[in-house]
Amino acid sequence: MELSIVIPVYNSERTIGPLVERLQACITQHTFEVVLVNDGSADGSEAVCLQVAEKYANVRIISLRRNFGEFNAVMCGLNQAKGQYVVIIDDDFQNPPEAILTLLTEATVGNYDVVYSYYAQKQHHWFRNAGSWLVNALTTYSLGKPRDLYLSSFKLIRREVVDEIIKYTGPYPYIDGLIFRVTANIGRVEVPHHSRTEGRSNYTIRKLVALFLTVFIGYSLWPIRVFTMVGVSLFGLGVMTGTGLWIGWLTDLINPAGWVMVSWAIGTATGLQLLFLGVLGEYLGKLFMAYSGLPTYVEKKLNHRNPTDDSQ
Fold first, then answer.
1. How far is it, in rounded angstroms, from Cα 55 to Cα 139?
2. The pTM is what?
3. Both 206 and 229 in a single domain?
4. Could you read off the pLDDT of 20-36 as tens digits, one per residue?
5. Could you tell me if residue 309 is inside a domain?
6. Rounded to whole angstroms, how far apart are CA atoms 95 and 197?
7. Which parts of the sequence belong to the Glycosyltransferase 2-like domain (predicted)?
8. Strand boundaries in 48-183, DSSP class E
9. Could you give the strand order of the β-sheet that contains 155-158, starting from the edge strand earlier in sequence?
10. Do 153 and 117 meet the contact criterion of CB atoms below 8 Å apart?
């Protein structure tokens, strides 16, 4: 199987059928499968997916018992995918299916592990664009994402990387965060982006906050270290200020007022508390990362002989 196309499906009974039809028509030079993951849709999406799966032998459907969220649905699809390359595409037709071939060409020509799409002009609602900008900025600082890389949901992932991603067994998968844990060999290619043909975006404030917290807390020790540095700074400032006040009092250069001493004591104590909490948080963070299922390292498969083969 050359290609697996994973589609998380949520309330898209009018678009999922035509989308699969387009995939069958435009991908003719490659063996491929379509993995539909119905994420607890409240409309007739499940029935449509079943009809499509009966019509085409290369289409499979997995239906979740409730709505678990896009990333969980994608993780389910990745666990079922069998292709040497796996493409993740939304069910809303904003990404043309023909662009899958563009991602595949970029991956094979550039020998990339992952290829992200980006758009000359995005057709998302302004709220989703603002949320995407916030998450992209956060991942740049917390996960080491290149600044010029847009984290599109429409992307292609090589088999070896998929095998590492699905080792994660926690309840809060963040696909892009797992990708950056595995590889830095990432490409990008421009593809068209269309307006939605049906329905409206499921991108809500609640989902944005949940994603922000997942990225901020679940995939990096950066927040702990920020608070630790704040504690170190406040404690260091308190020590220097206290030393200056003490020297000034001994030399009769200054006679600090009571509120000054109270402010100094509170600031120094607060800094010391944040420092201690940061150190404890570092230990807890290390334990959390150790039990998160993320790989310690990832080997790259090379086409070479094992030296021990010559002696056998």
1. 41
2. 0.73
3. no
4. 999 999 999 999 999 99
5. no
6. 11
7. 4-165
8. 59-63, 85-88, 114-118, 155-158
9. 59-63, 32-38, 3-9, 85-88, 155-158, 114-118, 186-190
10. no
